[in-house]
Amino acid sequence: MDFEHGCRSEYGPLELRIETTSAENSFMVFIEDGRLTRRAVFEHQALGTIESAKTYAVLQADDYLRSLGEPQEHSAQWRCS
User: Fold this and answer.
1) Angstrom distance (rounded) from CA 48 to CA 67
2) Cβ–Cβ contacts within 10 Å for residue 6, how many?
């Protein structure tokens, strides 16, 4: 699977990334926590639109923050290329 273009956003202490793949309507969703030595905390292939991938990334980030007992009151400001 080759990566094409993507989007990224800071989300509280996390970085969200979405990369399009060579497969039609396929995206890789990554969530990284810069506070950790091993930054990657979530990686998943999602099918659908870029907007649905963005929503999915935010939901997964909220789940991760909730599991740490941290607030989920963040806003994603996406930058895409």
Assistant:
1) 26
2) 19
Tokens of 37: 């030595």
Mean pLDDT of the chain: 92
Among left, alpha and beta (phi > 0; psi -120 to 50; other), residue 11 is beta
**What is the predicted pLDDT for the residue at 3?**
52
Starting from the edge strand earliest in sequence, which strands make up the sheet with 79-80, in order?
Answer: 40-47, 26-33, 14-21, 3-11, 79-80
Angle subtended at Cα 44 by Cα 64 and Cα 36, rounded to the nearest 5 degrees:
45
Q: The whole model's pTM is what?
A: 0.90
pLDDT of residue 53: 96
Q: What is the DSSP string of 19-78?
A: EEESSTTEEEEEEEETTSSS-EEEEEEEES-HHHHHHHHHHHHHHHHHHTT---------
